[in-house]
Design a protein that fits this description.
Blueprint lengths: L7 H10 L16 H8 L8 H11 L12 H6 L5 H15 L3 H22 L5 H6 L5 E6 L2 E6 L8 E5 L7 E13 L1 H4 L5 E2 L17 E2 L4 E13 L5 H8 L8 H32 L2 H15 L4 H17 L3 E3 L3 H6 L4 E4 L1 H5 L5 E7 L5 E2 L7 H4 L3 H15 L4 E4 L5 E4 L2 H13 L4 H5 L2 E8 L4 E7 L5 E7 L1 H6 L1 E5 L5 E3 L2 H12 L4 E10 L14 E10 L6 H10 L3 E5 L4 H11 L8 E2 H4 L4 H10 L2 E3 L3 H13 L4 E5 L5 H6 L2 E5 L5 H6 L2 E3 L5 H40 L8 H20 L1
Parallel strand pairs: 9-21, 9-24, 17-20, 21-23, 22-23, 24-25, 25-26
Antiparallel strand pairs: 1-2, 1-3, 3-7, 4-5, 4-6, 4-7, 8-26, 10-11, 10-20, 12-13, 14-15, 15-16, 16-19, 17-18, 19-20
Protein name: HAD-IC family P-type ATPase
Subcellular location: Cell membrane
Keywords: ATP-binding, Membrane, Nucleotide-binding, Translocase, Transmembrane, Transmembrane helix
């Protein structure tokens, strides 16, 4: 926003005016070593001093998002009188007053006022998207200044401040991490990934996507576990959240129906003015009565105006709103009702919309054997008692559940709800659903454990069973777990020497399907084992691999096929990895999933090339909020009417710019909901197809109503014109024409709207 006092340009101008070498807007902080970051920011482990922080606050402004003044209500009301037909009627009404035909003038202005009220009510909903963004800011934060820890208002943060982070904190600004201990941050609102991001301090490539910048912490995201320290590198409008805030301010263009009506209004206005001038001149010359001729011209103008159309539009769209609510689609903006019937492309987020937003183990394999589908598997004690292979699969599922930090708690329906890391929850759910783990297994005391750390690439737990036996369980990256193993289970469940080549083959087969693959191993220890020596596991038996994925929602594949049959193309636009997105796309039946478009590719593309690539692929992966917005605009430039679905803050700019923005009601953020036109209360893509069907019904009803009004208006215009040329007495007074258009025809037209 150029008018924002916290914009990058104004900050840099202030810095330059003060002679400060602090132009940070082009710095790729994620690609710099921590020492280079400290040097560039002119700070250190002791933080900034009071004088320097005050100076930087003056240069960079407060750490708050730019706000836009809402349009005054009076201005919004006056804008309702800006249409071409409205302008013609207003001129006629004013001249009618001068001719002292006050009843006709009053009737004309009454209709204009009613139309203005209807338009005002439709447009007067305040835009809450920016307000929702501001709720993501945190009021206070802990920083180190002059070597002391202080708690300050978050809007006083400046670049170079050293911020302390711990579990439960909301990130107050964009930070370059210089210390991370078991630090995990929920970045789903920015990246769309359901799994918490594991953070470290290592620099990454300059072209790394937002979700791959593991050494960064972004404003508005939440620390879910661990602790760390980070240097503020961007505040206010310069943060990733601030850029989204700016993008949300884009103006939404006219809907297809609004464009049609506008073109029709312009055409009618020109035709009516020409005919009215002809009638006035002809009547004045033929009858020698300029006043009567003008009243005839006014009658003709009034006869040509479809005054009842705004009412019919409102009634038809309100009816659509109630119908769509039956399919769990809540319409927040009336024009979205008819626009849904015109869409040609749906740009859909993946996580939580097309998929269940619940990581699920779909396949597992013993050692290096062939992947086995999990569905319908029974791994209870009785089912596996006489089968070594099944016992091996049960041991694999049990081991994954016993080195696990997922929390179980009963819900109101009598089932179990899981919380914690997405991978841990998936493995715990697998063991519970297949019966591989018992209550006694879960209650076995833990005598030693190592939580998962990115540096270790594994987690480890040692449990003591009731008979005193110690068992060590390990899970993590397959290569890391194999490096600790000496033996493995073969496909028949027998212990054999480790065959790394066979395991790699299974690993690649599962990975090619977009699965997240985890290796699992175990070892039985003697009861008098020196546990200190087992902190670093070795000599394990590699049990196998578990492949997990966020599975598609039931019915989505059928809904996408139905969209294709209706001439609507579905494009997946996600922040997830291309391989995962392509795998989900294939399972959903999307076309052209082999060559996914990525955000890094888009950096080098012109708009023309981007439009060409979008014609060749149905998947855009690892994209930023700016990329999503650009994709929507590229599709619209191709002439498409675009609907966008999403649930995160990163989806808000695209939701706002789309012809129809569709947000998720359950999992969606407040920002996404406020930027949208339609909210799906059940978060189900299937509801969109029902909403589109209703939208097409409404569009057809409105089109039929408009044709009826225009045809009757044309007939009245011809009647009045012939009446004047034939030198007959005035056929209709303006007041009578208003009655015919507004009441007689209006009632019939409303019936057509139903």
């Amino acid at each position: 926003m150029t008018s924002s006092m916290t914009s990058t340009d104004i900050k840099n101008q202030n810095a330059a005016a003060a002679g400060a070498d602090m132009r940070f807007d082009d710095t790729d902080w994620h690609s710099l070593e921590t020492s280079a970051v400290l040097e560039t920011l002119h700070t250190g482990d002791q933080g900034l001093d009071t004088q320097e922080s005050a100076r930087r606050l003056e240069l960079f402004g407060p750490n708050s998002l730019a706000e836009v003044q809402a349009k005054p209500r009076w201005k919004l009301f006056l804008e309702q009188f800006a249409g071409p037909l409205i302008a013609v009627l207003m001129v006629c009404g004013i001249i009618t007053i001068f001719l002292q035909h006050y009843v006709d003038a009053a009737a004309i202005f009454l209709v204009l006022f009613l139309n203005a009220i209807i338009g005002y009510v439709q447009e007067s909903k305040a835009d809450k998207a920016v307000e929702a963004l501001t709720t993501l800011s945190t009021p206070t934060t802990r920083v180190v200044r002059q070597g002391r820890m202080e708690q300050i208002d978050a809007d006083q943060l400046v670049p170079g401040d050293l911020v302390l982070l711990e579990s439960g904190d909301r990130i107050p600004a964009d930070l370059r991490l210089i210390e991370a201990l078991h630090l995990r941050i929920d970045e789903a609102m920015l990246t769309g990934e359901s799994e918490d991001a594991k953070k470290n301090t290592d620099p990454v490539d300059r072209d790394a996507a937002l979700g791959d910048r593991r050494c960064m912490a972004f404003s508005g995201t939440m620390v879910t576990s661990g602790r760390g320290r980070g240097l503020v590198v961007a505040t206010g409008s310069d943060t990733e959240l601030g850029e989204i805030n700016d993008l949300v301010h884009v103006a939404k263009g006219r809907t297809p129906l609004q464009r049609i009506i506008h073109r029709t209004e312009v055409g009618i206005a020109i035709a009516v003015i020409l005919v009215a001038v002809f009638v006035f001149i002809g009547g004045a010359i033929l009858n020698g009565d300029a006043t009567g001729a003008f009243l005839s011209a006014v009658s003709l103008v009034v006869a040509s105006m479809p005054e009842a159309l705004p009412i019919v539009l409102t009634v038809a769209m309100a009816l659509g709103v109630s119908r769509m609510a039956e399919y769990h689609a809540i319409v927040r903006s009336l024009p979205a009702v008819e626009t849904l019937g015109s869409i040609t492309v749906i740009g859909s987020d993946k996580t939580g919309t097309l998929t269940q937003n619940r990581m699920t183990v779909e396949q597992f394999t013993l050692g290096g054997g062939q992947p086995v589908p999990v569905e319908g598997m029974d791994l209870g004690a009785e089912a596996v008692s006489d089968d070594d292979r099944m016992r091996g699969l049960a041991a694999l599922a049990r081991a994954g559940a016993l080195t696990n930090e997922a929390h179980r708690q009963p819900n109101e329906q009598g089932g179990i709800e899981y919380s914690g890391d997405a991978v841990d929850m998936a493995m715990a759910r697998l063991a519970d659903q297949t019966g591989a783990v018992t209550t006694e297994d879960l209650d076995a005391p833990i005598v030693m454990e190592t939580p998962y750390e990115p540096e270790l690439l594994h987690s480890m737990t040692i449990r003591r069973s009731p008979d005193g036996t110690l068992t060590q369980y390990v899970k993590g990256a397959p290569d890391a777990v194999m490096a600790m193993s000496r033996t493995m289970l073969d496909p028949d469940g027998q212990v054999v020497p480790l065959d790394t080549q066979a395991v790699h083959k299974s690993y690649e087969a599962m990975g090619s399907q977009g699965l997240r693959v985890i290796g699992v191993a175990s070892r039985v220890l003697s009861s008098d084992q020196d546990l200190a020596s087992r902190r670093r596991p070795d000599d394990l038996t590699f049990l196998g691999l578990e492949g997990m994925l966020d599975p598609p929602r039931p019915g989505v594949r059928e809904a996408i096929a139905e969209c294709a049959g209706a001439g609507i193309r579905v494009v997946m636009i996600t922040g997830d990895h291309p391989v995962t997105a392509a795998a989900i796309g294939r399972r959903l039946g999307l076309e052209h999933t082999d060559q996914a478009l990525t955000g890094s590719e888009m950096l080098e593309m012109s708009d023309e090339v981007l439009r060409a690539r979008l014609r060749e692929t149905s998947i855009a992966a690892r994209v930023s909020p700016q990329d999503k917005l650009r994709i929507v605009e590229a599709l619209q430039d191709e002439g498409h009417v675009v609907a966008v679905t999403g649930d995160g803050v990163n989806d808000a700019p695209a939701l706002k710019a789309a012809s129809v923005g569709i947000a998720m009601g359950r999992s969606g953020t407040d920002v996404a909901r406020e930027a949208s036109d339609v909210v799906l209360t059940d978060d189900n893509f299937v509801a969109i197809t029902q909403a589109v069907r209703q939208g097409r019904v409404i569009f057809k009803a409105i089109r039929g109503s408009a044709y009826f009004l225009l045809s009757t208006a044309a007939a009245a215009m011809i009647a009045v014109g012939v009446n004047v040329i034939a030198e007959e007495p005035l056929l209709f007074l303006p007041l009578q024409m208003l009655w015919i258009n507004f009441v007689t025809n209006g009632v019939q037209d409303i019936a057509l709207g139903f």
